[in-house]
Amino acid sequence: MGDRRRERRGAPKRTLIGPLVMLAGGVLTSAMVWRLLMLGPAPRAADPEFSPRDQQALERVLAEHPAP
Predict the structure, then answer these.
(1) Number of domains forming the structure of the chain
(2) What is the pTM of this model?
(3) Torsion of CA 51, 56, 58, 61, to 10 degrees
């Protein structure tokens, strides 16, 4: 019959638990950051404010190059 005290050939369980906990923590952190970035309120689009001189230049360029 076999010897019950035969040593295991693989790594001990405690050497596998640490990396698995770190991996699970990284997945959880990534999911929280994704949720914060993707499901949070969208930033408001600011209306560009041009100086009168810039506005005139923009109108002149748009008048010279009409949209197709």
Answers:
(1) 1
(2) 0.45
(3) -160
Q: Answer yes or no: is 32 within a domain.
A: yes
Q: What is the mean pLDDT of the chain?
A: 84
pLDDT at 17 > cutoff 80? yes
Is the separation of the CB atoms in 23 and 15 below 8 Å?
no
Distance CA 61, CA 53 (A): 13
Residue 60 counted as domain residue:
no
The C-alpha atoms of residue 47 and residue 22 are separated, in whole angstroms, by 45
User: One-letter amino acid identity for 48?
Assistant: P
Q: Which domain holds residue 34?
A: 13-39
Q: What is the pLDDT of residue 9?
A: 75
